[in-house]
Amino acid sequence: MRILVIGSGLAGINAALLASEFADVTLLSKGPLEQTNTQRAQGGIAAAIAALDDPRLHAEDTIRAGAGLCDPDAVHALTSDGPEAIERLLRLGVEFDRDPSGMLALATEGAHSTPRVLHAGGDQTGVHIQSALGDRLAESGVDVRTDVTVGELIVEAGRCVGATTEEDGRETLLADAVLLATGGAGALYRTTTNPESATGDGIALAFRAGAVVRDPEFVQFHPTALVGGDGAFLISEALRGEGAVLLDEAGNRFMTRVHPDAELAPRSVVARAITETMRRDCADHVMLDISHMDADYLRGRFPGVYRGALDRGKDITAGPIPVAPAAHYHMGGVYTDVDGRTTVSGLYAAGECASTGAHGANRVASNSLLEAAVFSSRAIEAIRREAGPAQAPDGEARSLRWRLEGSAPSMETLQGTMNELVGITRSGAGLRSALDRFGEWSAEPTTSSQPSLPLATLTARLITEAALQRAESRGSHLRLDFAEEDPAWRRHSLWQLARE
Fold it and tell me: Are 23 and 2 in contact (CB under 8 A)?
């Protein structure tokens, strides 16, 4: 059996390692193996492993934050499989931090009702996970190819049978099953915590292959990024879990007036409050302050954040630092069931590029790494069983016609449009202006030398079309012209390519 895995983060490498136990596996990475959102994850991975915790409590917290759109079956799979996913990571060599008694150390982050976030190297969890899995991958028999951009999935008689690549001519790779683990879409925005490779390619590949895409409008903006000359630098939510507070321009703490959990409210609540405070104060940031804590403790607990901020001229131990929201995570993606199956036979998806429904409209902190571990394992088990495609989700998919060869003039132009018109706050007028630009671009042949730009442009248009359709504010989707949740919109948005 031949299996093709596209992506090299936690979901992709975990899937490749499991698949290599019974199949010949090829893993494609768009860039270097470590250029992933997994590598950049700071805070940790959430799972109910404590004696006083329970997967049901984890599920309740996840659903509470999801703004009415969590799929209960997906949440159950995520949280009930969580402890075993942690055990597997430990077996693969991930060395999570431990307390003085030798027990796994657990932290609290936003929307979690109890400490359940494991971390490694203080705030270097992603580095440790990526490194351990990379070591295991090097020891395996997986055929690993880096710096490869996938241009198209191959579909014959309704079944995905491989993919074509763009580098060094057009190479065709055939497979009995293809798993997309291409990560997120944050790099569609100019201000993001994501690596430059995170342009939503997997979503566009699956859409063009005929798969259903769900909820692309839900882009999570991390509330606290240090924004400076060389882009946005993530300031982990774990700082707020340890007692960091948010201050407005006058030095007043404002989250206590917004939500009972203050700085530990769901991310969408915190990001919205920051945005509204910035608008009120005509400022481009608010302040995050954890300097009241012991400096030596902060340097040991958050070495990555401390060094990263210091490199940008800010010292978290010395006083408040300026932060603002930045594009961070995509809750929408390729629709899958709880076994990673898409609506196209032979095509699977796991990790951030998939829409399992576990996050609803607003992801809980540190559930992303868990989702990648849990659902990539479930997808490989489904491939082993040679399961058929997923049933189409309930609801009618909106058809979208798109000139497949159309793209933005450049990635910088696309990122500017998304930042300006499809960012953390949206309006009907702005979204329609963005769609007008997409229409102009699609009328012109692609001339860019960037091979993934057509895919990135298509994913950006899907986000924009869905954001315009959803005439309400829910979770991470904030419409200035429809500021409240609308019960009529407590449903998923579904999108599928219109065949001519």
Answer: yes
